């Protein structure tokens, strides 16, 4: 559960008034505020509760890193079997969508049977079995451009092969917003030269740049199909808002099929940056070259059922008065708070003390 849902506590006077208290992380509140909704199983309509931020005077020991709220609403339906459901919704739409053509997003297995052979000349020959065949050399000088975010390893970098050009165009939409990038380039001889691939190609000096921030939306949503039975999707979200918002991955196997939710969602923190990587594996059956999945990442709606008859907080007695009697005793009277049902009994606690003295006498 998120912090707002975990901290949610609600009670009612079993007549008309409903009160809830909850809290959220102050950093998450600054980025995306949350609203509390209530519905019961009779009317089945979500009603936004009126919430007011509690002040420091009300919560003298409240930690500064949290924002505390008290919310009110009124309703008419009370009784055993009447359940109230509470839910939180962010005040911003948080989602990302992607159409995935399975066989255009294939991540083939790594090469197999890697072996090392020492030749008579002292050279080292690496041999392996490629999963998807080998590539031929080009007719002109070829370049390999590799780029990545600073925290990624070069093994996970994006690699582009270019022929007969010294330019490489990187589109902004192919880059992750708010990221620091580093790139390098190396050259290798094409087939027209008659030379073999170099054993240890050298990389150029690295160049770096930073992309602009992209807001609160889920970013870098991408899916890779293993070619058999699994589509693995990953995305990144701001670490701060994950305390209040849970993100889910939803997908359709075909445009006409019912939407399903992928589970479980795994999470991994990225060192030194305010984002976490979330991922989920979608099982694939009956795939073909025409298979296309519609994938969406969006904020999930959390709900909590609170039974009203188990969470009653009676209003304090009214019109409290004290009158003296003829035998020098005192009589304390008050007006009873009326509940909707007369068979519900109420118990009272009376406290009295002398002025300027804090020792209290309690009667029940």
Mind explaining what this structure looks like?
The longest helix has 6 residues, at 26-31. This protein has helices at 3-7, 26-31, and strands spanning 9-12, 17-25, 34-40, 47-48, 50-53, 66-74, 83-90, 95-101, 112-118, 124-129, 142-149, 158-163, 180-188, 207-210, 219-225, 230-238, 247-252, 260-262, 266-269, 275-283, 292-299, 302-307, 318-324, 330-335, 350-352, 361-363. The radius of gyration is 33 Å and the shape is elongated. A hairpin with an 8-residue loop joins strand 11 and strand 12. With 364 residues, it is mainly beta. It folds into four domains: 3-90, Sandwich (Immunoglobulin-like); 107-211, Immunoglobulins (Immunoglobulin-like, Sandwich); 219-299, Sandwich (Immunoglobulin-like); 318-363, no CATH class. Mean pLDDT is 81; it is low at 106-140 and 193-199. A four-stranded antiparallel beta sheet has the order 1-2-6-5. The chain has a four-stranded antiparallel beta sheet with strand order 4-3-7-22, with no helix packed on it. It has two helices and 26 strands.
């Amino acid at each position: 559960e998120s912090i707002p849902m975990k901290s949610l506590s609600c009670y009612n006077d079993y007549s008309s008034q409903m009160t809830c208290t909850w809290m959220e992380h102050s950093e998450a509140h600054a980025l995306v505020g949350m609203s509390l909704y209530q519905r019961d199983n009779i009317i089945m309509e979500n009603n936004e509760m009126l919430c007011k931020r509690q002040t420091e005077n009300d919560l003298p020991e409240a930690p500064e890193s949290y924002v505390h709220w008290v919310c009110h609403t009124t309703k008419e339906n009370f009784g055993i079997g009447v359940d109230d459901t509470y839910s939180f919704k962010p005040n911003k739409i948080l989602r990302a969508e992607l159409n995935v053509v399975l066989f255009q997003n294939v991540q083939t297995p790594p090469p197999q049977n890697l072996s090392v052979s020492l030749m008579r000349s002292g050279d080292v020959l690496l041999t392996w079995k490629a999963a998807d065949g080998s590539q031929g050399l080009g007719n002109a000088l070829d370049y390999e451009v590799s780029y990545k975010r600073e925290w990624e390893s070069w093994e996970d970098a994006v690699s582009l092969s270019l022929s007969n050009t010294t330019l490489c165009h990187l589109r902004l939409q192919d880059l992750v917003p708010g990221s620091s990038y580093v790139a390098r380039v190396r050259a290798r001889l094409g087939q027209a030269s008659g030379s073999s691939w170099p054993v240890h190609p050298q990389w150029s000096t690295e160049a770096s740049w930073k992309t602009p921030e992209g807001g609160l939306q889920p970013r870098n949503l991408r899916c890779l199909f293993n070619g058999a039975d699994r589509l693995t999707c990953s995305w990144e979200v701001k670490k701060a808002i994950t305390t209040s918002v849970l993100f889910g991955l939803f997908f359709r196997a075909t445009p006409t099929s019912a939407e399903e939710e992928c589970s479980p969602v795994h999470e991994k923190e990225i060192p030194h940056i305010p984002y976490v990587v979330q991922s989920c594996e979608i099982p694939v059956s009956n795939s073909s070259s025409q298979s296309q999945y519609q994938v969406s990442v969006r904020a999930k709606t959390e709900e909590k059922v609170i039974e009203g008859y188990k969470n009653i907080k009676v209003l304090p007695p009214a019109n409290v008065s004290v009158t003296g009697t003829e035998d020098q005793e005192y009589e304390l009277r008050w007006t009873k708070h009326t509940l909707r049902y007369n068979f519900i009994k109420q118990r009272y606690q009376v406290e009295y003390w002398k002025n300027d003295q804090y020792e209290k006498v309690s009667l029940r």
